[in-house]
Amino acid sequence: MPTRCDLDEDATIRLRTRAGRRHSRLNQHTEVGKVAAGGKHAARRGHDKSVRVGPTRLGKGVFARRRYPAEAVIGEIEGRIIDDPHYGSDYCMNIDDGRVLEPAAPFRYVNHSCEPNCEFDFFDLRDTGQTEPERRVFLIALREIKPGEELTIDYNWSAAAAIPCRCHAPSCRGWIVNPDELDALRARLANTLPKDTGQTA
Ligand SMILES: [Zn+2]
Predict the structure, then answer these.
(1) What is the 162 CA–ligand 1 centroid distance (Å)?
(2) What structural domains does the chain harbor?
(3) What is the whole-number distance in angstroms between the Cα of residue 136 and the centre of ligand 1?
(4) How remote is the CA of residue 155 from the centroid of ligand 1, in Å?
(5) pLDDT tens track for 141-151
(6) What is the number of other CB atoms lying within 10 angstroms of the CB of residue 165?
(7) 68 falls in which pLDDT band (50, 70, 90)?
(8) β-bridge partners, 139
(9) How far, in Å, from the CA of 154 to the mean position of ligand 1?
(10) CA distance 111 to 105
(11) To which H or E segment does residue 50 belong?
């Protein structure tokens, strides 16, 4: 088993994506429509060529094989959708309807950065012949990405799940945590760290 960047065995692992944010913009996001209309197999063929999994300082990571403009759809995150509120794993992500997606390679290896160049977004899409829309997750470029660049997202974990971050971004928060949860994290740390740090033993 590869050791994934910034994860440890004790962490409660749930990727907190900013998914719903662009939910209502699906109709404007023609590229997602195109990727989705091509079907899952086409999407898989697409991202086989578009990214590669390679080593990083701390484990595996995902790297662009070509240039992407901002807002580009890099690929569809495929995997198993699990309808179990107690399910947890190193890679699973909430898809905001009570279920989680356990992503398959290559995108299960996307690492966290406090200054990410990508994000996961989900969309409810109806394939040809389907009556009910299906929730599907895509990796979207937040800015222009150069060939060879590592693709990263912000895990946005809750304070309860936060672990130290080693992303080395200039604005690194020091923790893999949702910025809105920093106060809750400080409260958690105040309760777990020794109160008097100035004293020598
Ligand atoms: Zn960081």
Answers:
(1) 11
(2) 19-192 (2.170.270.10)
(3) 27
(4) 10
(5) 999 999 999 99
(6) 20
(7) very high
(8) 75, 120
(9) 9
(10) 13
(11) helix 39-50
